[in-house]
């Protein structure tokens, strides 16, 4: 029996790289779309390049851009994927307020182009869109579930909501096996340093080693539902194994504040965080979501999924990874 074939956009990012690892372990043939070929050797899939039985044999990388629909169609048609994971796109709500047109095009229109390409394939391809808790914006209740009304408050959230709705429409109108994973914040050592979790973990490690003197942050009161990224990637795969495919929230159902995150990170290195944290009003966001907390009960009930790494352990893993890497 031939190996299943998967296609991943955003394969060099945190989620894409963990997903590639998972699928390769499960004996998939994996195709990935790469926007910057020159950066692949330094990306999160660089460890796979050291395996001669992987690159070009079970893992295939394709150069491409979402603006070039003709090239995308050609690449995807040749790959003939059984499963398609669309994880790529601009990933910062804050930046989206400065670059709304770029955000809407890279997040919203890219998804629509992919759905149109998949609609024309000879056989149905299971499609998963990586959505975000940002689609709820300022929800009327907490925790949020799959029936919570969408109410985005940033261009990023609006573009994510558009993509999520388009995936649902294609499932209904064209009977395609499409779904969205509504992802709450999820972290790992592969998380970009632009995210507050890694900024804090890196600062704690660097301050402990005498490489940095202070940590500048905006608000400490903001709260998030933080989980462990490899668990969320496993949840995405589980979603496409379900029959029929459906939308699921992947979250922990627990809120923690930025202050709790800072305190936990500095505890890992035996320092008092208040001695090093400095408030920077320039880092405050103009639109702050109202305590986005997800209800994962549907995923737990129907998929058997859960987040396995508690908050404190997750922060410790991030800090230790940064400390050991210095």
Task: Describe the 3D structure.
With 326 residues, the protein is of the alpha/beta class. The chain has ten helices and 13 strands. A seven-stranded parallel sheet has the order 3-2-1-4-5-6-11, sandwiched between helices. The chain has a two-stranded parallel sheet with strand order 7-10. β1 (5-9), α1 (14-25) and β2 (29-34) form a beta-alpha-beta unit. Helices cover 39% and strands 15% of the residues.
Summarize the topology.
Elements: E1 5-9, H1 14-25, E2 29-34, E3 59-63, H2 69-79, E4 83-86, H3 93-98, H4 100-119, E5 126-132, H5 155-173, E6 178-183, E7 186-187, H6 196-208, E8 215-217, E9 223-224, E10 227-228, H7 229-241, E11 248-250, E12 256-257, H8 258-268, E13 277-279, H9 297-303, H10 311-325
Parallel strand pairs: 1-2, 1-4, 2-3, 4-5, 5-6, 6-11, 7-10, 8-13
Antiparallel strand pairs: 9-12
Gist of the model:
The chain has helices at 14-25, 69-79, 93-98, 100-119, 155-173, 196-208, 229-241, 258-268, 297-303, 311-325, and strands at 5-9, 29-34, 59-63, 83-86, 126-132, 178-183, 186-187, 215-217, 223-224, 227-228, 248-250, 256-257, 277-279.
